[in-house]
Amino acid sequence: MCVHTTPICVHTEVVDVSKQIHDEGRRESSRSTQVRFRASEELVETYDDAVEESDFGSRSEALRSGMREFIGADYGGSTPLEPPKEEPLRTAYIKLCELANADGVIRHDIAENELSTMLGKRKRTVNHSVLGKLRSRGYLHHVANVYGDRSWGLTGYES
Predict the structure, then answer these.
(1) Coil, strand, or helix at residue 154?
(2) Could you give the dihedral angle defined by the CA atoms of residues 131, 133, 137 and 139, in that order, rounded to the nearest 10 degrees?
(3) What CATH architecture does domain 43-154 belong to?
């Protein structure tokens, strides 16, 4: 019960909104399942060292990639080329395909911003370790446009 000198009480609304935000967060976090298992300290340290040397952004990304590879999860054909097997290149390529226009073109600044946010990496890292690698492997190519902006073309869209 609130005691105020004014006839309007906002506490109830604040609590309701706070509870709603908290409940929505709980619903959203239930979309993925946390997996726990035991491994020797030596194995975990060796694995973490390998992850640091790889293109994976985290141990979790590497484990998810390994799980997908183990079960033979395919990519569903939503991209013009089969995505790279290793993360984060796989996730980045699929995201770029989602963002591209009907001609398979995406502006560099949009690609850089979206991937930086999604992967939790700096833009400079995204440019070198993600976009650069996708380009060198033939998934992307530079596209000129009339505005002078840098853009990427997804290989496989041009026909």
Answers:
(1) strand
(2) -20
(3) Orthogonal Bundle (1.10)
